[in-house]
Specification:
InterPro entries: SAM-dependent_MTases_sf (IPR029063)
CATH topology of the largest domain: Rossmann fold
CATH superfamily of the largest domain: Vaccinia Virus protein VP39
Strand order of the largest sheet: 3-2-1-4-5-6-7
Number of strands: 23
GO molecular function: methyltransferase activity
GO biological process, one term: methylation
Distance between the termini: 42 Å
CATH architecture of the largest domain: 3-Layer(aba) Sandwich
Number of helices: 20
Number of domains: 3
Largest sheet: 7 strands, parallel
Radius of gyration: 31 Å
Keywords: Methyltransferase, Transferase
Protein name: Methyltransferase domain-containing protein
CATH class of the largest domain: Alpha Beta
Length: 583
């Protein structure tokens, strides 16, 4: 669970981005006793008077941090970044999980979680797109002839679009309609026609919009709030990017309105308002219906989050590139050590219950773990054949119900096991006295205060276990210390460069279990193991699935040809790794 007192909001206050980013962050954080914001005072690009702007002055719970030195004093748990275009966050926040909202800049590739709230061109690259986090107004406009028109281009209006629209109004438009304009904070009123009501700041504007029949604005929060109030909307945007967003959402807009002259704007306004008078209700019905959604609290959603380790599990680097995003997890590749890894946001509790080895195992393999026991033992014998050390002390971490250790004991090894599941440990204690079994998590194991000690084992095995750990930079040195010099570490794990990962990476990532934090291949395995004191690394690729080949190869290759190709190219979906301790 995220501690809401440790959430830091970073909204955009730059020239050209308006005040909408700050406004919605303030609304989201309004329920907090203290709402922490990073609003740097030295930001020369700031479009907002941070001392005197009404949005700031009326927010009693706002705690402002204006320097990186201040940020270092709090142990932040989460950053909510609503900055539109971000290149990087302050270096002191480098390893804090970031939820980037409607982010369009390079940081979108690195952010822990990308949440698109406004309809965007990049929806496929987001973890989630949730319209319901916007708290739309409840009051709607009554059906009536078009009469009252509001011009509002936010708290900044960087393209001076309000004045351009006002300059284009002819006598007919001014006389036939009641016009109002909301100017930016401290905007100039000298050039406004006498027939136009001038407003400087409207508190809680969204709940006043139903009093108007048409809102002229640019693509953004005010446009969506007006639609939710069942008000007509015409968009004049400050650039082509917003034109494209308007087109995607099918909101009427003036193409390249920011380039049009006074006469062209006047022609467009007369034509568009005329069409709205003729049949506006029917043409806007589908747009209005999109806005009828139940509000969801962003803060409640954030507080339910449980975020796994943020940095690379192997080397601790934050240099990374996103390779997949899903609702409750993101996948990255570390550009430093090449490991593919998951950052998880909603952790399932009690993953290793009895169901893990029975109903869940049967769902995946068609039989329970104990029913599959003979097959697992057979695989254990094959693995023992591949381990170069043939006698001594062997530790199987995550030994489950003990099939591998039974075969190791048969071959003369002193068999030791560590298992987190109480049911599995009890089963071994009751049935297999030849196994020295201990219950617990390897992560929490203190080798200086336990039955395990440094340089104790000749062989350590982890069969489909290594991927379950989210901190390999601590785990791999601990494994190394338990092994004798020249001892063998043997692992098996899903193969990120197998047939599934090679030809349908997104599906492979989507279906990867929620407790698999790392996805290994040969390159990342070599780097990870060498980094932590292992050498003589060998691989044995398993899990060949000709039926998982892409359709085009299925059409031209027989089943046996595909199987041979998979073996030849190492395209199995699982593989084993054998490494020796030593420099």
């Amino acid at each position: 669970m995220i501690n809401s007192d440790k959430i830091l909001f970073i909204p955009s206050i730059r020239h050209g981005n308006g005040t909408g980013h700050l406004r919605r962050c303030l609304e989201w954080s309004s329920e907090l006793k203290k709402a922490h914001y990073y609003l740097p005072s030295e930001d020369k690009e700031s479009a907002i008077d941070l001392k005197n702007h009404p949005l700031i002055k009326k927010t009693a719970n706002l705690v402002r941090h204006d320097s990186e030195k201040e940020l270092k004093q709090i142990d932040w748990k989460l950053i909510v970044l609503d900055n539109r275009t971000t290149y990087d966050v302050p270096s002191v926040l480098n390893k804090i999980p970031v939820i980037a909202i409607d982010e369009t800049g390079p940081f979108r590739q690195r952010a822990s979680y990308v949440l698109d709230i406004l309809p965007s061109r990049k929806r496929k690259q987001a973890n989630n797109h949730v319209f319901s986090f916007l708290n739309f107004p409840e009051k709607i406009r009554s059906i009536r002839p078009l009469k009252k028109i509001l011009i509002s281009f936010g708290g900044e209006d960087p393209g001076n679009l309000s004045q351009k629209i006002l300059d284009s109004l002819d006598k007919k438009l001014l006389e036939n309609y009641e016009w109002s304009v909301i100017l930016p904070h401290r905007g100039n009123t000298e050039a406004i026609p006498n027939q136009v009501q001038c407003l400087h700041y409207v508190e809680d504007l969204k709940n006043q919009l139903h009093h108007y029949d048409l809102v002229i604005t640019s693509y953004g929060l005010t446009a969506l709030e007006a639609l939710a109030s069942q008000v007509f909307v015409l968009l004049f945007n400050p650039g082509s990017y917003h034109d494209q967003l308007s087109r995607n959402f099918r909101i009427p807009y003036c193409p390249r309105g920011f380039k049009k002259n006074k006469r062209q704007l006047n022609q467009y306004l007369n034509h568009a308002i005329g069409l709205l008078n003729e049949g506006g209700e029917s043409s806007f019905k589908s747009l209005w219906s999109k806005m009828t959604i139940k509000h969801q609290s962003l803060l409640e959603w954030l507080e339910k989050m449980t975020i796994s380790s943020e940095s690379c599990p192997v080397c601790g680097s934050m240099d990374r590139k996103v390779i997949g995003r899903f609702e409750f997890k993101s996948y990255f590749i570390c550009t430093n050590c090449s490991m593919k890894y998951m950052v998880q946001f909603m952790q399932k509790s009690d993953i290793y219950s009895k169901d893990y080895f029975f109903s869940e195992y049967k769902k995946q393999y068609g039989k329970t773990y104990l029913e599959d026991f003979p097959h697992i033992q057979k695989m254990g014998e094959e693995r023992l054949d591949r381990i170069p050390i043939k006698a001594g002390k062997i530790l199987d971490i995550g030994c489950a119900y003990g099939p591998f250790l039974l075969k190791a004991a048969e071959r003369g090894f002193s068999a030791w096991g560590l298992e987190i599941s109480e049911e599995a440990v009890s089963h071994i204690q009751e049935n297999y006295p030849q196994i020295n079994i201990h219950q617990g998590s390897f992560e929490n194991l203190d080798i200086h205060h336990s039955v395990f000690s440094e340089n104790q084992f000749d062989v350590i095995t982890m069969w489909y276990v290594i991927e379950h750990f989210d901190d390999l930079k601590s785990l791999l040195p601990k494994l190394n210390s338990l092994l004798k010099e020249g001892g063998i570490l043997a692992l098996s794990t899903p193969h990120a460069s197998g047939i599934s990962g090679q030809f349908n990476l997104q599906n492979f990532l989507k279906n990867s279990p929620e407790d698999h934090f790392t996805l290994w291949d040969r390159k990342s395995a070599v780097k990870a193991l060498k980094l932590h004191g292992f050498r003589s690394i060998r691989f044995h690729v398993t899990g060949h699935h000709p039926e998982r080949f892409p359709l085009i190869l299925k059409k031209i290759l027989t089943y046996n040809m595909r199987k041979y190709m998979s073996i030849l190219l190492g395209w199995g979906d699982t593989f084993e790794i054998y490494a020796k301790k030593g420099k």
